[in-house]
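Slide 14.
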Amino acid sequence: MTALFALATSFLWGLADFGGGLLTRRTPALTVVVVSQSIATAVLGAIVLATGAWSEAGPRLWFAVAAGLVGPVAMLAFYKALALGPMGVVSPLGSIGVAVPVGVGLVLGERPGLMQFVGIAVAVAGIVLAGGPQFRGAPVQRQAVLLTLLAAFGFGAVMALIAEASSTLTGLFLALFVQRVTNVVAGGTALYVSVRRGGTALPRVAWRSLPAFAFVGLADVAANGTYALAAQRGPVAVAAVLASLYPVVTALAARGFLRERLRAVQAAGAGLALVGSVLLATG
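Slide 15: predicted structure.
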């Protein structure tokens, strides 16, 4: 079940990143974050009320608050890094955030088996290659690298925090709701400041994209939920690596919907990632 939930996480995150990337081509990144997370918050609020999840409130929700503060910062840093490019460097660098939850699991005493360690190494190599790293070409701005590393650490921290925020299914609903409320408050404050400085909040064309905003927000929150379930049912190191296969999903979505061609290194990376996931699932 750990492998199943973690692979579902990578699928959902991959599609959410693909959708978010498309939206940011015509809408400010901060607006994409705030609108998509607002829709997810409304849906989660209804679920919390329907399930009576408020009864699960406790000190562990502070982990969800922390995840809600870190998440928007990581997203904005990642989108800004993608804008500075080149994407072929930014994408694989962003995936190294998996080291955070893996490290937390090891510190807490988790010891994956030999085959799982091999699977982790193979899968991480595949994730990096699937991003299509550019070994030659345009120079990379130092700011892009720093922003990408900040985003990677933030994504990894969110994975570790949300795994600690609850221990039951209804508690998970409440934790995700608290995380999203914090996301919206933090992102909304930043958006307000941006508008006060002359920025654009929601271009007219964005209203026609509300279904896409909803998809991005709901896919992202669902991915957080399946990851938490995966981390609760098995080693965090295994769950984190399998959940980090999302760059492969994003690349395949771009290939299918945008007709972007995969380079040889990306195809090889996708293959390695799949081999690594099999080793992790069976180890």
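Speaker note: The chain is about 75% helix and 0% strand.
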